[in-house]
Amino acid sequence: MCTAAASEGLSAVRYRLDDLLIDLERQRVERDGAPLGVAGLSFQLLRHLVEQGDRVVGFDELIHRVWAPAVVSEETVTQRVKLLRQALGDDGRSPRYLRSVRGQGYQLCSRPHPLPVTEPATSPAPRSQRPHMRVAVASVVLLVACAGLWTWKQHAGRSHLPVAAPAPEQPSLLQRAAYYASIGQRDNNERAIGLFDQALQAQPGNVEALLGLSRAYSARVCLFNFPPEWAARAQALAEQAILAQPARATAHAALGYSHDCRGRIDDALAGYERALALDPAADSTRASAAYLYDRKGLLAQALLANTSLRGDPARVRYLQLQIAGILDLLGYPQAAEARYRQSFALYPDNVFSNIAWPRFLFRHGRTTEAQAALDEAMRRGTEHADLFLLAAELAQLRGDPAAALAAYRQAEALRPQASLPATLAHLQAGPVDPVWAKARANRLARELEGGAGYPSDWLEVVVLREAAGDRAAALASLQRAVDAGYRDAAYLRVSPLFRMLAAEPEFARSVDALNRRVALEHRKVPGALLERLTASP
């Protein structure tokens, strides 16, 4: 007869992990009765690991179970694990609670044990029933304890054998391609391209594959320094998809993206707006359009679009960066800084977070902090021409022309097809032929007048005309930038590229005109929205 006695049942709500008490229901972690600061995503990550016992949990599973429907990268998981370890007081080099398994994922260092739960206080049973109830409960508990002990003994001899997890459903070729494309890293984008290519070889004309490949080709140009010919290929694929399915919103969005990545701002907006007319719930497309409204100086329209999403904002990549940029231009640098700083900390694999935070610090004259943030961004491996352009301007400000030239040349090497890095490298290299500078400025101005490029591209014309010795034309080009929608007065004041112009009355008049237009945009934004976005957390 089993002699083990028990008065409490096991629960899957509270667990002991080493010296930690983990309460899944209350979302609370304690050590020696003191609560630890484990909350939000960190707690959800811990919860899933606890529920898996001491099984190794892979990155894909963690992303699906903890972050979904948001799309994140493995680096985001790594950073969240780092935050969880900090909250637990764990050391990744000598882990006590959570260890990494190279090439696989993460695993708890010991198996968490479910804890018995104390029976909650309830109203007493009627007096006449209580003795009989106690006997019945004791009998049941004893029976369960004996059965549990027998089961444990049967299992103990084979407890060292691994328990196979249920085999997950195998994703299709297109699903796997879309997953890699969604991560936002160069290597994964290339994997996605290979898979989309395979899908098209297996089924020529497949619209999903056409659009996936189109977006991935555009991403090569927008994110990973490929030449614009890839965006032209992306355009052709999107147009093929539109021909097959004219009312498909994602096809028009892909077409807009192909134009966006080549600086064709009006064509891009036409594609995005057509997509939104077909599918008003397409939040990522709305955010893409909002970015271009911002570039055109339509700050109120951009902010309203960014804050009028139909679904979960966490699923829209770069949303907080876009909101931060607009708030900064509207005169709310503290609210912008909080978003930039958080994005930089949480998304080290996000190329635009790595650019935006040091650039914000630079624009506000915090050059020492900007240099430190830029150094960290460079170590993260998200190479982008804009990082080296910023490095060059910082070098100019500290009086290091050799370092500035080296950085400009690195930016040019990353984007040899882009005009601005080549121009700035040429100007920094030494004496400039005024005839060359004038011809280059005139060619670029004609392209901009024909509808190509962003308003900010007029700033390249400004520096070229100044280098050609035509200051009046340079100042007129600055006003053209403002008229076209350029709205960043802070950058104009701090950049070494405009030092020679800053003392001119016409420069001040252009900046004043810029500020008046920003003030007009500010008045268009509902006060309640600004109050919500700028409130202290």
What integer is the average pLDDT?
86
Biggest sheet strand order reads: 4-3-2-1-8
Helix content: 55-70%
What low-confidence regions span 5 or more consecutive residues with pLDDT below 50? 1-11, 119-170
Number of strands: 8
Q: What do we call the CATH topology of the domain at 174-297?
A: Serine Threonine Protein Phosphatase 5, Tetratricopeptide repeat
Estimate what percentage of residues fall within beta strands. 5-15%
CATH architecture title of the domain at 174-297: Alpha Horseshoe
**How would you sum up the major sheet?**
5 strands, antiparallel
Estimated structural class: mainly alpha
Rg? 30 Å
Distance between the termini: 61 Å
Say which CATH homologous superfamily of the domain at 174-297 is assigned: Tetratricopeptide repeat domain
C-alpha geometry: globular
Number of helix segments?
25
Would you state the CATH class of the domain at 174-297? Mainly Alpha
Give a structural overview.
- The protein has 537 residues and is mainly α.
- Among the domains are: 106 residues, Winged helix-like DNA-binding domain superfamily/Winged helix DNA-binding domain (Arc Repressor Mutant, subunit A, Orthogonal Bundle); 124 residues, Serine Threonine Protein Phosphatase 5, Tetratricopeptide repeat (Alpha Horseshoe); 107 residues, no CATH class.
- It is built from 25 helices and 8 strands.
- A hairpin with a 3-residue loop joins strand 6 and strand 7.
- The radius of gyration is 30 Å and the shape is globular.
- The chain starts with 9 loop residues before the first strand and ends with a helix.
